[in-house]
Each structure stands twice: as C-alpha cells, then as structure tokens.
What we know:
By secondary structure, this protein is an all-alpha fold. Helix content is 33%, strand content 2%. The protein has helices at 7-18, 23-30, 34-44, 50-69, 129-135, and strands spanning 102-103, 112-113. A two-stranded antiparallel sheet has the order 1-2. Mean pLDDT is 74; it is low at 82-86.
Amino acid sequence: MRGIWTRERIALLKRLWTDGKTATAIAAQLRMSKSAVLGKVFRLRLPPAPKATAAAARRDAATVGRRRRGRLPAKPPVIPAAPVMVSGKTLFELTNDSCRWPHGQPGTKTFHFCGAPGADLEGGRPYCVRHARRAYVGHRKSPAAPAGAADPPITSPSIVPSREKRFVFNQGRKRS
C-alpha cells in the first residue's frame, strides 16, 4: 500500500495535518516521502497547519522585537512618490523641428517623445543629433581595407519578390 492514496490515507492525512503534525511526521506514519505528503496537501488545497502558522507568527514577532532593540536595521520610512514629471513632448506638441524619438511604453501616461530641437521632418530627419546617432548606425570599415578603397557594394537580398518562378514542377511537359 506504500505510495497509494486511498480514501482512508487521505482522511488520515487531513486529520494529522489539521492536528498540526509536520509533513515529516505524517510521511513517517503513512510510510511515504515528505514530498509526496506535501504534494497531496497542495493538491487538496489544505490550509496551512495551525502549528506552522503559530510558529511563523512567533518568528515574525521575534523579528519585530529585535528591530526595536536595534539588532536588525529598521526599514527606511516610506516617502510618497513624487508625481512623474515627463520631460519631452506629446504627439500634439511636436513641431517640424522636434525630435520624434519615443520614450516609455505607448499607451501609458508616461509615454512621450524627446522633443529636442534639431530635427527636420520635412527634410527627412525625424530625430535630433543624439538620437540620429542611435537610429542610423552605419557599417564600420574593416581595418584591413586600404585607406582610399571604396566600400564594397551592399549585396543584400531584394525585398521585392522577383517575377521569375523558381520552383516549377514539370508536369509531363518537355522544356523547349
């Protein structure tokens, strides 16, 4: 019967648990592992044992007492948080020369844009100098390249799909 949860063993577990027995003592009496007992207690959603809650309350009371005597450092006083000051501009405050670098999570009260001068939206520069450096990172020349050599052409695949069909299955027709 070791390791099998019968109705009788579950009833005994519930009774011993409510009496305040430890999981180790219950496991010894049921001839099971402590983990099996704790797992069953969890699955049955049994409340914490009265003895365990009393021990936790004593431990918490002792901790509070030691704080008063100065043995443990006291928690710093809670200072109310200052209202969040948003530096920057909202979407409706942006002008042609305002930086449009986003800050924060969109949809929250703290979301805003940088708003610093130096951008030129009509000229194709949506960011100030500082944020343009972050947004437009160019490739670096390799140190092995000679001083006057031109950069090699960029050979990235085309984004536009080509018109040629690459995978055409021959359906019994001969190619001409």
